[in-house]
Amino acid sequence: MIKKILHQISNTIFPKMCIGCMERSIPNDQGHFCVYCLSEIPFTDHFSSPNQNLMCERLYGRLPVNFAVALLYFSEGNIVQNMMHLFKYKSEIYIGQQLGDIIGSRIMEGTITSIPEIVLPVPMHAQKKLVKGFNQSAIIGQRIAEKIGASFSDDFLVKIIPTSSQTSKNKMERMDNLRHTFSITPEGIEAIKDKHILIVDDTVTTGATVEACGKLILKNGAKEISVACAALAY
Length: 234
Prior knowledge:
Elements (H helix, E strand, L loop, with lengths): L1 H12 L2 E2 L7 E2 L8 H4 L15 H6 L8 E7 L4 H11 L3 H17 L8 E4 L4 H7 L3 H13 L2 E2 L4 E3 L11 H8 L3 E3 L1 H7 L3 E9 L3 H12 L4 E10 L1
Parallel strand pairs: 3-9, 4-5, 4-8, 8-9
Antiparallel strand pairs: 1-2, 6-7
Helix pairs in contact: 4-5, 5-7
């Protein structure tokens, strides 16, 4: 009885916000989206087909993966674009945390049988992270790691050269922009050896960034890699 009363008080004082709009509160036991946003959210089916989906097709022939999944589809003007904008540019970190929880839960509840041992987020250059205050991929990745029982590090994989924005570039331009951009620390090389690594990104467009990170991880001794992201552009 007391627990129920405390739960109701908590809901009143600290309401759980819909991560689709960050405008409407929802009961703590009713998912992550309000009814308005839920009707518009374009979820993928990747967690029921983690080896045969649009993300896998995006990486086919470029990066060998155990599995590759995205939670949502991102397109110009849709609700996912608005949600990711709030997360990345308005510092609504709560959105990224909740997305990481959902992805982690779906990995455990879906058809994926080989659970990664280490989660590594796509890194952000130290100077940019200092200005921004956080790495959005790390926010998502840390919560995924907690859900799947994996280790997490935001230090093993590093971005040593700042690059210009990838947004307006095509696939070849993105790869050129990322060439020799990432590195793995000595501690990271030791840790990833013979391990299944999950690379986490917030949004995947051409896949050039996760391809560059994945090739480097495999080159430095990882047994295999998988990829997970919050949103996949289509």
